[in-house]
Amino acid sequence: MPDFFFSGYNNIFRFLLLMIRDISVILRKIQRAKADRRLAALFLDWKRSLEKLPVPRRKDGAKRLLLIRLDDIGDYLLFRNFLPAYKQSAAWSQYEITFLGNGVVKPLFDMLDQSFADNAIWVDKKHYFNNADYRNELWQQLRNGQFDVVINPSRTRPLLLDDICMLAAGAPDSRAAGNTFKNPYINSLSDQCYKQLFKNDPVLHEFDFNKAFVKWSTGIEWNICRPEIKRTGSGPLIETPYILLCIGAAHKSRRWPVSQWVRFVQFIQQNSLPKAVIAGSTADAALAADIEKMTGAINITGKTTLTEVIGWMENADAAVCNDSMAAHLAISCNTPVIIVSGGNNYPRFTTYEEAGIKNAKTVYAKPFLKKWKANKQQPFWHYTPVTRDLSTVSAEEVFAALHKLLKHQPVEGPSS
């Protein structure tokens, strides 16, 4: 058949793929608008319920500060280096500090940070949203804490979690940053709950935002330029050098396809680079098993605790990660890292190079790069990637980025 036939067919196919992506984005926006309406109604309902909680009478003259940080592990890694500032601050050094945190970060907190708070309360977020009795008990515990001040350092605060817990504490003074959801009405509902608000600079990387917020809330300028975890002292967990491949991510749209991971491992194996070690949570076990089966790579997925993963990361020659907590862990361990990203919240979480961290490189999906170029390479928030976007990031691109980061000479790709 003539070439123009195939050319026309390919153009139609590409057009259909773009149409499917656009429809997916539109549907997400519609679903988000509906979810925001439900969220606002439920928030106001829970807020009215909190008004009925009794306020206990003070029995002592102790001053009490509640720090709320209920987001996930990656966010905590970008915040935790600033936790000591509250103990050291002249403003808060006389306060008894209670840390209210997401239960999934407890092993990390216990290992690295528990000396920076007097008490800790841990929240199981699944139980919180699904069990009214659990939720009410937590609210009453916070009300009984008799806190004078609540500070919420999170840049984006879920109203039903962070803000409701702040209101449950019933402290006369409350401080946070202006919330950052796309819907201004949701942000307004959230922000009006606080007595003092820190102005949010949208251009700052998340770590730099945390640095600015802690200066505002403690008066201390914390002079560190990157998240840091002091070496745990664990020796190499295998005898041979290795590259840690962190295949997991909280959302499907942030997961690089298995086919690309397989091809990437083949690049590593055929060019005598350090061995590939696949890592992830139990939720990633099936994907990891597929990669292991097709490549023979070492697979520790679902077999390590959070604290053990730190040892694996700090002893790795390099890491390749999705846009997930593993990327922030690599930065914290000063391990060279390649981040594969669809562009979600990119100014906040993946612009490590722009923030001056040289042993990190982000490889972005092509739909995001197209949008970024159309925006004249200026930062923008609330970009909506879809699952298919990461299939536009090739194993060749990621391997080339890793190769450059590790300063190897050019090498051949895997055979087909």
Question: How would you characterize the overall build of this protein?
Answer:
It is a single chain. The protein is an alpha/beta fold and 416 residues long. The protein folds into two domains: 50-218, Glycogen Phosphorylase B (Rossmann fold); 242-408, Glycogen Phosphorylase B (Rossmann fold), CATH 3.40.50. Helix content is 44%, strand content 14%. It contains 16 helices and twelve strands. The chain has helices at residues 3-50, 73-79, 84-88, 106-112, 125-130, 132-144, 159-169, 184-191, 206-218, 258-270, 285-295, 306-314, 325-332, 346-349, 366-374, 395-405; strands at residues 64-69, 96-102, 119-123, 149-152, 173-177, 196-198, 242-246, 275-279, 298-299, 318-322, 337-341, 360-364. The chain has a six-stranded parallel beta sheet, with helices on both faces. It has a six-stranded parallel beta sheet with strand order 9-8-7-10-11-12, with helices on both faces. Helix 10 links the parallel strand 7 (242-246) and strand 8. The relative contact order is 0.10. Residues 408-413 have low confidence and may be disordered.
Terminus-to-terminus distance: 27 Å
Number of beta strands: 12
Fourth CATH level, the homologous superfamily of the largest domain: Glycogen Phosphorylase B
Oligomer: single chain
Morphology: globular
**Largest sheet composition:** 6 strands, parallel
Provide the structure class: alpha/beta
Beta-strand content bin: 5-15%
Order of helices and strands: HEHHEHEHHEHEHEHEHEHEHEHEHEHH
Looking at CATH, which topology of the largest domain would you report?
Rossmann fold
The structural domain count equals: 2
Name the average pLDDT.
90
CATH architecture of the largest domain: 3-Layer(aba) Sandwich
Radius of gyration: 23 Å
